[in-house]
Amino acid sequence: MLSYLHAFHAGNFADVQKHAALTLAITMMQAKASGIAFMDTHAGSAMYDLDSERARKTAEADHGVQKLWMARERLTSTDWQPVLDLLSVHTAKGGRLKRYPGSPAWFRRFLRPADSLTAFELHPTEGDQLEGWASKQGVRVVRSDGLAGLLKQLPPRQPRLLVLIDPSYEIKSDYANVAATLAAAWQKCRHGVYLIWYPILTSGLHQGLMDEIRQSGVRKVLRSEVRLEHPPERGMIGSGMLVVNPPWGFDDRLAGMIEDIADADLLDVNHQLDWLVPE
User: Fold this and answer.
1) Of 105, 225, 235, 270, which has the highest C-beta tally within 10 A?
2) Any idea where the domains of the chain sit in the sequence?
3) pLDDT per position in the chain (279 positions), as tens?
4) What radius of gyration do the chain's Cα atoms show?
5) Distance in angstroms (rounded) separating the CA atoms of residues 144 and 42
6) Mind telling me the catalytic residues?
7) 41-59: buried (b, 16+ CB within 10 Å) or exposed (e) per residue?
């Protein structure tokens, strides 16, 4: 049931899209001084060695974050700078990236005294690695199912909320569970900003998630999808992000970031941005 390990996929094109959207949401929300409760429902192990046997077996980072990093001078959107600042800490000799930060590390990078971060992880191995990292970072780790755990934490004590929901979807029921959790969380904290990642598959399973969220009553849902120009015959052919209650102007700024990389010379993807559910 818990076989998925992100180390095989860390830094791939989906991570680039996911963490670009996450970083943009954080920096835009932090334009105001009031505290934010950050919650990461499927935190993983926080840091990934891109030279490890697992990472090299798939080499997905070579076609994702490594290409982004090597072409960083061509990026025109200034919203990439916070992303590049964190990645620069993890360079090795020769200019390539040695490590890739998982979502808890992206959250931690921007944590202010008024903010808090709760990272959920159920996988025993990933959870052990996460706790080892978190013990030095002042990050709270909860070893439980992140979807159920999120609802127990709402509403937060801080006046604002930013949640990342990104299960592996290795279990088909994850799609329905994510939609149901989002609807329940939105009822508990309607002003929260929720980021939901999902894989775009040849099977079309992700369409069920779209349908359920449309019918859930949740409003103001922005959808960003990147699809591979040369997709595999089976499996993941793209990556999607839903952003509930995005900050004003987020759509234009995210579009600018993804347009920077949506070409064959940088990342081999096409980008589509629309409103899944309007306000």
Assistant:
1) 105
2) 6-277
3) 455 667 677 889 999 999 999 999 999 999 999 999 999 999 988 888 888 888 788 778 888 899 999 999 999 999 999 999 999 988 876 788 999 999 999 999 999 999 999 999 988 888 888 889 888 898 999 999 999 999 999 999 999 999 999 998 988 999 999 999 999 999 999 999 999 999 999 989 999 999 999 999 999 999 999 999 888 878 889 999 999 999 999 999 999 999 999 876 788 889 999 999 998
4) 17
5) 10
6) 166
7) bbbbbbbbebeeeebeeee
Taking CA atoms, 15 is separated from 9, 21, 60, 277, in Å, by 8, 10, 10, 24
| 198 and 225 Cβ atoms separated by less than 8 Å | no
Give CATH for domain 6-277: 3.40.50.150
The neighbour count for residue 250, using CB atoms within 10 Å, is: 20
Taking the C-alpha atoms of residue 256 and residue 261, their distance in angstroms, rounded to an integer, is 9
User: Pairing state of beta strands 36-40 and 47-49?
Assistant: unpaired
Quickly count: other Cβ atoms within 10 Å of residue 71's Cβ. Answer: 15
Tokens of 15: 């991570």
Distance CA 223, CA 21 (A): 11
User: Residue holding tokens 């801080």?
Assistant: 158
